[in-house]
Amino acid sequence: MNPAMSKSHTLPAVLFLALLLLLAPSAARAAELIPLRAGPITMVFDPDNVFLRYVRVGTHEVLRGINAPIRSKTWSTVKPQISDLQVENRGDRFKVTFNVRCVEADIDFRWRGTLSGNAQGELEFTFDGEAHSTFTRNRIGFCVLHDASAAGRPWVIETVDGGSSKGRFPELISPHQPAKNLRAIRHEVTTGIHARVEFEGDVFEMEDQRNWTDASFKTYCTPLGIPYPVEVVKGTKISQKIKISITGDLPKAPNADDGIVLALSEKESALPLLGVQVSGEIEKLSGSQLQRLAALRLNHLRVDLDLSDKSFSKNLRRAVGQAKALGVPLQIGLNLGETPAFETLLAELKTLQPPVSYWLVNGGDPAHFQKAREQLAPVLGEAKIGVTRSSNFVDLNRARPDAESVEAVGFAINPQIHAFDNASIVETLPIHADVVRSARQFAGNRPLIIGPITLSPQLVNGVPPLGGPPAGDLPTYVDARQPILFTAAWTLGSVKYLADAGAHSATYYETAGWNGIMDADEVVSRPSAFPSRPGEVFDVYHLLQEIGEFAGGRVRQIDSSDTLGAVALALRKPGRIRVLVGNLKGESQTVTLRGLGTPVAIHLLTGGETRATPELRVSLPPYGIARIDRKSD
């Protein structure tokens, strides 16, 4: 038991506030964001990721950001290294210049960036680069991100042939590119305010990045219809430019920051059935690990079996043993491969008699689903059989199941296909609700089985996916943030948005190991980049324990005035309400909660007592989580 959690249970029962966990382990200190202003337009420059972020007019977001990634032939993103950063900031105008070096394997590409803004709210971002080695690439150059809040907003598209057309950003997630051959996009930011983004130096097109739970519509250079990868010869020069202008009834200055407000609404939904994956690293769980898992009141365990690999029998036996020890059913994902051993599977099922709630056939081939359904028909019992995708929503969205015999629909989620920093990962959280709502349009009333939900892209049939985060000393499917508080705060947001949208089930991480909710009990060799100790219970475990006490309960929606700053989940059972509040920023902040009922005294873990008012203010450390329990009316 985490000491902070143990202490919190000694507080009075009517209402108590306890910081769930302490600060995350120390890490390399990130460079500070540089605030910039061009007349009525505000933004920040992120030097670590060479990323212009959060271009806003007042409280309205114009763009989520602009960056210029170098994508290798496997779609991995080469980490940029910035140098010679110069900032001229004159209040309502600015100029920023810098050099960037992108080096990985045989890739050595360098570029000079210039970013400027004037008092009229006009921005310009230039990219002038040169290859210092010969290599192959899939893409080099600017990506412009329109925030997901643009969905449904009207636009005017200008194409490279001089044409223009009116339309709208897609409301539901578009499976394919909603706009191509772009020269400029003019769109409505809010009533009376419009933004125009102009592209130079290449042909650009747009994709709906919500398919990967990114919170944006991405307009990128070099259309996917052009064959790739392409060789870039040493000495090749590439230049591009982005111009942004704002028109309309613009405020003279940015709005004052009133702080983050979290407000309890009347909307209510069921808490999704929560589970974890059987560990892909730890062969056998200890008695203490099983006890910890039992304390979470999980609804299920999940295991994925590759029926063309002889090892699947061993994996199935391990999963069945753990599920029976915990008294929970299994969700079983099936990868058929080229030679699925159904006879072996059926023999194992006859012997093991596993408790199965869902069979989920992976992949978009309808023939695979029908074959699995026919083979499993004699042993299905009360279990449902459906389809899933082991990558992200995009694969499901592009190959939608239509067979009436499909009883459930699922897909995996991870937040690191295109970006890997904390801020970008946090931005994905509201999109968890968007993918569920979009899936509902073709899944109908069938249960939506979401998972696995992980920080990093997972292995697919034992093979790392394309792209993925820069791993350093760690495998691409492991994230060094797994043990720390950041992961707990992100998971809190994920559960909140999946619940709001009506997901039936959600599976997070693994039971144990470096992709788990606790580490191995025995000593396991770990790279120094992974901050864990043998037997350590990770911060996200304690979050799931707090939520697990309300298994089978309901969720009251809590709206945040800043979805990138703070999130809250309100859990309800007869006679009880629990509110979990998470800070989504790497700095301390205070948030205000509204609508939680009669004011009473608040006891703080750090000591002392304050008088509660109808506007309850909660101070949180970086990525901190607070808990409020009270009796319901």
Describe the structure.
The protein is an alpha+beta fold. The protein is globular and about 70 Å long. Helix 9 packs parallel to helix 10. It folds into three domains: 3-26 and 259-263 and 557-631, Golgi alpha-mannosidase II (Immunoglobulin-like); 40-248, Beta-galactosidase, Chain A, domain 5; 272-549, Glycosidases (TIM Barrel), CATH 3.20.20. The longest helix is centred in the last third of the chain and has 17 residues, at 485-501. Helices cover 17% and strands 39% of the residues.
What is the topological layout?
Blueprint (H helix, E strand, L loop, with lengths): L2 H6 L7 E4 L14 E5 L2 E6 L4 E7 L2 E8 L2 E3 L7 E10 L4 E11 L2 E11 L5 E9 L3 E6 L2 E5 L6 E6 L4 E5 L10 E12 L2 E8 L3 E5 L7 E6 L8 E3 L4 E12 L11 E11 L2 E5 L9 H8 L5 E7 L5 H15 L3 E6 L6 H11 L3 E7 L3 H11 L7 E5 L4 H6 L10 E5 L8 H6 L1 H15 L4 E6 L31 H17 L3 E6 L28 H10 L5 E7 L5 E8 L2 E8 L5 E6 L6 E3 L5 E3 L3 E6 L4 E7 L2
Helix pairs in contact: 3-4, 8-9, 9-10
